[in-house]
Amino acid sequence: MDDQINHIIETYKTLSSVPAPISATILLETEDSPLCIHSTWSTHDLIKAEQTKFSRDFIVERTSEKCNLLFCGIPQDITTDSLSAFAESSKRQAVLRKSSNDRVFLEIWNSSRKEKTFDLSERKEHGKIYDNMFGCLSWSADEKYLLYIAEKKQKKSVSYFKDCFCQDIGGSDKDDKDTVKGEEYLYREDWGEDLTGLHDSVICVLELETGKIEVIELSGKHENLWVTQ
After folding, report:
1. d(Cα 12, Cα 7) in Å, to the nearest integer?
2. Of 40, 36, 39, which Cα lies nearest the Cα of 59?
3. Is it the case that residue 228 has pLDDT exceeding 70?
4. Residue spans per domain, the chain
5. Mean pLDDT, to the nearest integer, of 51-64?
6. What start and end residues bound the annotated signal peptide (predicted)?
7. What's the maximum distance between 2 C-alpha atoms anywhere in the chain?
8. Could you give the dihedral angle defined by the CA atoms of residues 177, 183, 189 and 195, in that order, rounded to the nearest 10 degrees?
9. Of the candidates 71, 4, 16, which has an alpha carbon nearest to the alpha carbon of residue 38?
10. Cα–Cα distance between 222 and 71 in angstroms, integer?
11. Mean pLDDT across the stretch 75-96?
12. How far is CA 26 from the centre of its chain?
């Protein structure tokens, strides 16, 4: 009986270690040069008890009859990468990465180094960045802008009896425009389950040169539509 259980355990370990493909991108495609295929895979780590993601590159030579594999790169762990996208030129890559303390960084890489890092967890233009089924990360054609989806920034809700006025350095009172009274217990519908806390989405455009973020909200008859639907 013990031998049978051990056999089942070892079989499960073997099957769990088999990676499953998630996505693939063809880079630098030309008629007379080999194909560079950047692929993303997922596998289950039984020791860590978590899903692990890794990337792997393949160099493939095309002929009139078949494709020949010239090179297969070593897998690189990308578990902490939430989203990634290659520019149209395939020479730059944007990576949205979470740190251990839940800070969110957007990194811009070229073929030789990391160009820039943006700390998006410190930005006030929007809320949580979507890195789930509603997430998106896309380059502009001129590679000057990046588009992503985030939660709309909501006004802070406080009690009717709370003083919403703050004292500035000059000593005068000013109304806090980002605060609304009486809605601290207002129910706001979300998507539930793994998407709890997602209420209203907005389109965000990051200018890479200046770091400025433009938030695009749907208005008019499209106001109640979900951006990524």
Report:
1. 9
2. 36
3. no
4. 19-78
5. 88
6. none
7. 80
8. 60
9. 71
10. 49
11. 90
12. 20
